[in-house]
Amino acid sequence: MKIALVYLPFWPTYSPPLGLAYISSVLQRQGHEVKIFDKNIEFSKNIKCENIDPWSDNVLNKNSQRSFFNETTQPLLKKEILSFIKELVSEGYDAVGFSVTELSYYTTQYMSSLIKKLFPSILIMWGGPHVTAKNDLILADSEAGIFDVAFEAEAEETIQEFFNALKENKPYYSILGLICNHPENKKFIKKKRPSINYKELPFPDFRDYPLNLYKVKQLPIMMSRGCVATCSFCTEFLTWKSYRIRTAQDVVEEIKNHIENYQIDNFIFCDSLINGNHEQLEKLADGLENVACTWTAFCRVDERLTKNLLRKMFKAGCTELLIGFESDSQKVLDLMNKGTKIAQNQRVLEDAASIGIKVHGLFLVGFPGEEDHDFNKTLKFIHKNKDKFYVISIGNSLTLPPQSVVGMLPKKFNILIGENGEALLDNEGEWTSVDGSITPLIRKQRLNKLRNYLNSMKLNWVPQQYVERNSLQKLSLSIYHLFLKLFYTIKL
Ligand code: SF4
User: Fold this and answer.
1) Residue 480 pLDDT > 90, yes or no?
2) Rounded to an integer, what distance in angstroms lies between the CA atom of residue 16 and that of residue 133?
3) Residue 397: per-residue pLDDT
4) Does 293 share its domain with 178?
5) Cβ < 6 Å from ligand 1: which residues?
6) Is the peptide bond before 204 cis (omega within 30 degrees of 0)?
7) Which CATH number characterizes residue 137's domain?
8) Which of 136, 207, 299, 402 is the most exposed place for a label (fewest CB within 10 A)?
């Protein structure tokens, strides 16, 4: 089959997404003719926006609103999308697969509907984080016939089984991970798939990406999927289900392969954390010691992340670590089920900074149970270590991701709940503690205090662009982490 894999606006344009590169590799291995089209980056360069730039940091997030899409985005993209459809048809593509995120949902829906209307024989496939997270929307789109099949979560195995079934003319609707309407009785079908065998995947293929157009000359890479920790505010370990890791040797080979094929020697590990397995991390550092490359990664504080290991990582090209410190109150860390100690936070920060690794500190303000004196400890910790941080992420007012432990069990976290047992939210989607110790106002005041504090210390902090927004647009710290990671790991 001739298959187009498409990424539509809108998304940041820093570096190429990883998900489609994996999907392309597995489909090529199956014998299909595949091409990736990153229309997000291409349109961002070609479309001249006189009044508003939908890709700019302070506008980007608005693309998740239908009204913004209808009034602003669609008129801008209409001509380009029609001409892209003509290109796909003239080149004889049999199937088009879209990677769908919250910000590209309306554009994807628009283009898919047009294809279905004009060229109904073309197979339309959807995948990506929005497909996995938004059951209700996907059900409606499936019933409306906007797509033919969609793939939930990790799509690499599901999509291969789907094309095998098509080739052998066998029914495909019982494939795990597939979302569709039954071809005969039209019943909506959605079957969850267990974690896939990540180690068996071929290297992701970036050759179709216009690598010179991205803001940063950097490639995403993944050594593992899932997380070994179970922090209650986070969705990573639930999204990826089990923790799986490739061998360090395989990752070193992939890095060498990318350097040779794409002449790019700068990488971002988009794993939930790079140190889920310290033995493999050390082997990775050993394997990269003589490879001329630089890399950045997320990690968690851990006693096994020793100064010696950090030194090896630095020698192996690690320039920056994004470390989830979250708080300097042991009580709050325990409430978060963080599994770390404040003394470890201090030790890892000192060791990493003294070696020369840039520390991007991640903090979470206003967790249920955090009191003023807990928050003040965090302020003191940052102040005491201000010279050791390269930048600080402070997120925004903590929302409750429905798939996180705190979102699923609000009562356990002393959050006011309604009759249905779910968190009682105000008009702005904000929650309050039963005893009033944390309210939306208190969280806002603490965040403002922290921002002012960081400004007074002239310490860089992010995400500045998410600060002055209404409740629908703001991102919690957990979502912000996810945002950073999804940016690199968009799956078909
Ligand atoms: S916050 Fe970090 S360490 Fe904790 S579960 Fe999420 S990814 Fe894992």
Assistant:
1) no
2) 22
3) 65
4) no
5) 227, 229-231, 234, 236-237, 272-273, 300, 324
6) no
7) 3.40.50
8) 136
